[in-house]
């Protein structure tokens, strides 16, 4: 067990817990950590001659918080410095170094390159459903832009190729758009799709539903989505 710093001890002694702390404490209990680590460990880099990688569980916890709170890579790094509850959830004390935005980006790319994101979500959602926490009676769909640095002043000398520019109102944004399907009763995310930020929300509407909903809630950006819905498993036509 790590030795607590004075800052950690002072934080542990405080009386009131914030909503973020309560949420993270609940996720600590319900996320199937062992199963998720089994998915990632075979492709995670091991310590070599270069800089020693952070523990895979630390990076997984940071990655999940990034998705839960809709944070870009730079914003996630800053949050780890500023918000003690998030740093503690990642298993880092006040004495430990914080993964920088490039390290966070590289882990996200590792997850995407090995097509692990869908499997991670499936594992979490199956576990939550078994515990009766994900009820699947209704879904709220929405989208948000996740910002990314547009600068080319990095190791590769180029922008992230997965990010694009778009105009939101009177403001230009650079990044990607996350489309989420949220369980209406528990508030837990059950589906995530990402697109360039200039893609129409309505185009991915059907991919955000599990098709067991009794009700669906969405804003005006999804008007007409019901007319575009296609059956996920169309019946095969048999020859006469």
Mean pLDDT: 75
CA-atom Rg in angstroms: 20 Å
- Count of the domains: 2
Provide the β-strand percentage band: 15-25%
Structural class: alpha+beta
Q: Label the overall shape.
A: globular
H/I helix tally = 9
Taken in chain order, the helices and strands follow as HHHHHHHHEEEEEH
State the end-to-end CA separation: 70 Å
Q: How many DSSP E strands?
A: 5
Write a structural description.
Strand 2 (164-168) and strand 3 form a beta hairpin. This protein has 2 domains: 10-123, no CATH class; 135-225, no CATH class. The radius of gyration is 20 Å and the shape is globular. The protein has 9 helices and 5 strands; from the N terminus they run ααααααααβββββα. Helix 5 (73-82) packs across helix 7. Helix content is 36%, strand content 16%. By secondary structure, it is an alpha+beta fold. The N and C termini lie far apart (70 Å).
